[in-house]
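Step 1: inspect the first sequence and its tokens.
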Amino acid sequence: MPRYKLKLKQLDFISAVDEPAQETAKVLLIKRKGDVAPAHAKVAKVDEALGLVFCWAFTSKAQGADYYDLHGDCIEPDFIEACAAFMEGSRSVDEMHDGKAIGKTVFGMPMTPEIAKAFLGIDVDTIGFMVAIKPGADALAKFKSGEYSGVSIAGWGEREKLASRKNTGVAKSAVYTTEVDGHQHTIDLDCFYEGAGYTSHNKSTDDEWGHTHSVVRGADGSLTILADTGHTHELAEGQAAVVVVPANAVVVVSARSGEDGTNKSTHRSAPPSVDITQEPSMPDNSPEIADLKKQLATALALASLSDAQRAHHKSITGADAENFLAKSPSERDGIVKAIAKAKLDADPEHYLAKSGRVYRQSERELGDMAKRLDESDDRVSKREVELETERLTKRADVEISHFGKSVTARAALLRAIDGIADEAVRKEVQEAVKGANAIIADVKKFRGVNPGEDAYSNPGDALDEFNKGVAAFAKKNEIKDEGLALEKFLGTTEGRALKKSYDATRAYGKQP
């Protein structure tokens, strides 16, 4: 049977089936409230659950090797994006791929070496998508009876047929690297997509989580191991492996010691006596090989672009685009920053809004609109402050009219009291201030007694006349501040006379 690499692009359904295409997609555990039953697997734990079926939706690698299903497909390890979209979207479960949803996928967890290392601190040799589905009562009963033994996925992806091999006595499916910082990696030669692959997951001496290295396979079969965590590797000396490149050109990759003692990658054509593929090989100088090399170099350069660099590349075409890709990352970054600065210089700032948004000259109309809105907001805020001050001033004249000389100070006192967050404390303070105000008002009033037959008038009458005089003077001169009105009234002839009369009565009155 021919074999294929399947790059999963979209996942639409997880289907309950009687016989899954992947043997690893058998049901591992069924959990139902008050009732737990196994299917094709030993139940490790029994507890309360809600009708859930736990299984592998699919497997990409099993026991460290690529897993090919009954259709000859091996799902590529970069399936996380498709699975994430599925879990964010429908999460639908159907039966026998009929497309009619009868349940939901309630849990989904991708399992990769990186995830296993991060969560569990262990190395795993199985890669795939673990799920728990809730299929509905009828389908759950079929899982329990064994009629449904597993699940299958429905979606779409890109399928690439793998070249067949014959007489592969000298071929290897993997090679290994030199040792750096106390570790080495293996490279699976069968797990490349569009010329890109990766090493096994291993840890350096001081590496907490472990790492992999990206590996690029050239059109001529050469392998380039990229740097990660501050280092890279070469192929170990004496390694040799047959590599089938996209154009089916067969080369042998090996490592030898250079004159300086370092390991270097070299390549040579495969021996004519080794029939690796039924399709003829193309010479290294063929137009097809040259075109593949160019495409690979372009793909690698595009993959290395930052978001800003990619946006600039999309805005140019032809030779300009090719020249931009040919530059180093720092040169590309310098070009992008220079262009961005030139755009800003050519379009200076017009208005900085209160929100922090900068409107440039090209956005003059929007900037003017934002400015008007800010000014309107300022006017509203100012008026709100004025209204609040008026309200507090009126309250100050009524509630604490005898506190201090300035109504402004009394209003400020009320504002401070209103700012107390604790309602109970705020009410207690308000009552205390009102009580103190009443005491002050009472003290200001002279409480005399009638001296009987004495010729002098009741001191209360003199004080009343004096207070009436102050009030009339304040009203006439539109003076709201009580202390100021009293001060100015005493400067008048009437004020001094009434004060003298009041002082005379106090000499004979009795103080309370």
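Step 2: inspect the second sequence and its tokens, then contrast the two.
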Amino acid sequence: MSTVVVGMSGGVDSSVAALLLKREGHRVIGLFMKNWEDDDDGEYCSTREDLVDAASAADVVGVEFEAVNFAAEYKDRVFADFLREYSAGRTPNPDVLCNAEIKFKAFLDHAIKLGAEKIATGHYAGVRERDGRTELLRAADTSKDQSYFLHRLNQSQLARVMFPLAELKKPEVRRIAAEAGLANHAKKDSTGICFIGERPFREFLNRYLPKKPGPMLDENGRVVGEHIGLMFYTIGQRKGVGIGGTKTGSGEPWFVARKDMAANSLTIVQGHEHPWLKAAHLAAENASWVAGVPPEASSAYGAKTRYRQSDAACHFSGSPNGAFGLAFDAPQWAVAPGQSAVVYEGDVCLGGGIITASN
């Protein structure tokens, strides 16, 4: 059997991934990645607790274990991009870049130095060899599928990856963990951006980027309030807008609809179904395709413009410079620049890019 280095985060998913590979007879090495160091004091960031949980799980499973610090790589490759995007008024998804640059690049390089033929993680996704290429697939547990976050992985990365949880549902993963005596079998799933943890997002972001308040406008251009800085808002946002729907206008809730960086103005509209919140087309750039080449122009694709979303039927049109467009059969709600548009053909994730505009 081969040597497999498993990214162990301290959570139940990666612990069970290591357990299953060990049971298959592989030589398994657990690797804990520390990706963030700034103010890692335990109040909001659980790195130390997670390291203890990962080491404990490795001990129970009976595999080798080590920790590695990728904080410098993370700050250069992921966090710097995160700040640039927010400064430009977009809403980035750092987990997508973290997977491509850290978990399946820096981690993979380190694992190869340890003698690994393969790496594995506790992601809910699958891989399949077909016609000489490696395909990225949805997981059997569609409610937990994470292929959206993995869409920037390339052929050389996927050829070395194993996803042991591909065919498992989350309750089964927890059952396997409990029966194996893993103390983290009931541990709560981590949520949110890894370097922010549970801390207040606005407070965190304001430490790195200066506030720049400006006018908050309604759809007619009338000033209805003041925003605290465009970086703190995303298209479709309702919570935190700061204007009570029942006190103004139609009585319906207010949603962020547009951001004008040049004028430093934020436009909000009332009602979830307001037409300014819906887009029939989007443009994206910085594309990354799993197969190494873009899909063919077709109407047989589905796409997600955010993680928790069903596939939306669409037509794809590409260009050689890494830009592409999607035309949806039905308008999509709150398409936000900076987020990822990810294209699927059935259960196969083809790749995607960063949304730049929609209409």
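Step 3: confirm your contrast with the notes below.
The first strand starts at residue 3 and ends at 7. The domain at 3-179 is CATH 3.40.50.620 (Rossmann fold).
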